[in-house]
Amino acid sequence: MIYREAGDFKTSYAKDQQTFPIAFDRWGYFITLAFAFLVVPFIINDYWINAVVLPFLIYAIAAIGLNILTGYCGQVSLGSGGFMAVGAYAAYKLMTGFPDLNIVFVIFLSGGVTALVGMLFGLPSLRIKGFYLAVATLAAQFFLVWLFNKVPWFYNYSASGQISAPERSIFGYAVTGANALPAVSYLFCLCFVVILAWAARNLTRGANGRKWMAIRDMDIAAEIIGVNPLKTKLTAFGVSSFYIGIAGAMLFAVYLGAAEVGEAFGISKSFLILFMVIIGGLGSIFGSFAGAAFMVLMPVLLKNVMVGQLGWPTDMAAHFEFVIVGGLIVLFLIVEPHGLAQLWRLAKEKLRLWPFPH
Amino acid sequence: MSANFYFGVEVFLNGLMAGVMYSLVALGFVLIFKASGIFNYAQGVMALFAALTLVGFQNGQIPFAHLINAIFGTDLHHFGWHMPAFLAILCALGVMILFAFLVERYILKHLVNQEPIILFMATIGLAYFMEGFGDLMWGSDIKKLDVGIPQGGNIWLEENTAFLGGEDFYGFYLDNLDIWATVLAAILVTSLVLFSQYTKTGRALRAVADDHQAALSVGISLRSIWVIVWSIAGFVALVAGIMWGSKSGVQFSLSLIALKALPVLMLGGFTSIPGAIIGGLIIGVGEKMFEFLIGAPFLGGATENWFAYMLALLFLVFRPQGLFGEKIIERV
């Protein structure tokens, strides 16, 4: 009854085309934002921030990035882990090479570096399509991880081969390094997430997004109506890698603090992000958030139930997690191939008509 | 000839052998892809699962022992028998056929007519499921697999080739296991080709591979064909699992050979059985030679991790359908 557009008259094109045309949605969005910025930092404890909220925010950025490439432009990539590693190592080199550079610029610049690398590995996508491309992106994954392992310049010749983030601060508050307060890291990540999600949402409904979707739906037809496949695919690879690089830089600098490339950015990370995108819903920004939340929360929940409540050994709980994640993915694809985002859309559709059935 | 040249030849031969091992996994992919258009990511995990099941039967392990112990507080481990290898292989094959049946019944049936990418992702989910399931069922410790295949260097070959090189050359070192794998792979491929050319079921398989709808319209049951194909792929996975398991122990990393089989497939073409073999040989030789000639001396080693993918990537840019794949024709 409250969730509907009837009676909500639009008097300008700008209003008609806004992201949330329904007032209820719009208010929900603003209230969520206000809650996330003004209330959460004061009520949340360190465990929740470190175990759930920070990974959720960072993976949400990565999932948006992969969603732009896979969901909007239809190019399946299994190289996200490698691109995250590029972001992380770029951030590390920038932080140690230019100690005075502001951390915000560091993160955006490492996104830019990753975008370049991503476009380089996106070049073959012109000739290679579908599965072949998915496998070709594995080349990026394995090559990049090997590169960061073997070339000492990338980890500043440190004996352990690890990279660790030095302390950097904004407005006098440390956001990276050991002294960073969890609430500060949280707000820092949240700002990035909000800005990037807003940018992604508007990119995908603009001219670029439409070109991406045209290429996704049928690339030859898109080419015939005048979409340049080279430019379109490369922009998708670039933008997507930009997001994934930022996520990698933040995962390393803000969340992990120290990282070893094979462990932190291995092939399993690529799959994790791909799962987030599938479960959340291909081609939906909201879906990226939903998928990230699901994939971050579920292991925590399962672990709490199986290890905490039932007292099972942790390795068995880990195996169960595999079984459940795998089973859920198959189940999702059978029941709802379009993911959580589609469930959300259906729920809204029902809500619009409520209390009438039709 | 210098000893270095002979070392190079030895690396080449070992590369061929490694390539055969990759081909064994790639074969399973090709079979399923041809018959159902599904790119089965779970093939590697199937090999792991088959090997785990085989070891489990051989040692008389109780399935889900850990789980049962954790829930009921019991202390079960083994039935206390020791099954002969042949019987255990038959039992493992039975399990793989049952698995094929279940996959068709509970997954494929519901995903008919979905886009290929959805099916691909479903098999990734299946791979995760089986990985956890196999570990739950048989435990996750590294197991030794021994079905009576001889292992270790082939002494006959080593002694008879030692005269070729100088004083610091002791003859070619080839692992017996690899030689066996080559023989087995040859038998497997021959019998698969014979099966698909000269039996009624084989003809039905080829019909389905050509055109699903046309096959349906002449009365071929798609569902039973799928069960058959997945069973054969399960059998190939079992063979691959036995060979890889005997070589490096049955453990989690076995499932990662699937990733190694992917560039093999791309090089050979997804739809060609000879392509899988030749692609495997090229990748095996290529990565070993690259490591020997360029990787180890100049790049710091461990180039085997990515060389195969890069080779496949560069190759595909020039020939997108692989060496023997059907020409990709796109229509609007």
Automatic annotation (TrEMBL), chain A:
It is a multi-pass membrane protein. It comes from the Bacteria. The keyword Cell membrane applies. CDD domains: TM_PBP1_LivM_like (cd06581). The keyword Transmembrane helix applies. It holds the Pfam family BPD_transp_2. It is found in: Cell membrane. Keywords: Cell membrane, Membrane, Transmembrane, Transmembrane helix. The chain crosses the membrane at residues 27-44, 50-69, 76-95, 101-123, 130-148, 183-200, 236-259, 271-296, 316-335. InterPro entries: ABC_transp_permease, LivM-like. This is Branched-chain amino acid ABC transporter permease. The lineage of its organism: Bacteria, Pseudomonadati, Pseudomonadota, Alphaproteobacteria, Rhodobacterales.
From TrEMBL, chain B:
It holds the Pfam family BPD_transp_2. It is found in: Cell membrane. CDD domains: TM_PBP1_LivH_like. Keywords: Amino-acid transport, Cell membrane, Membrane, Transmembrane, Transmembrane helix, Transport. It comes from the Bacteria. InterPro entries: ABC_transp_permease, BCAA_transport_permease. It is a multi-pass membrane protein. Belongs to the binding-protein-dependent transport system permease family. LivHM subfamily. This is Branched-chain amino acid ABC transporter permease. It comes from Paramylibacter ulvae.
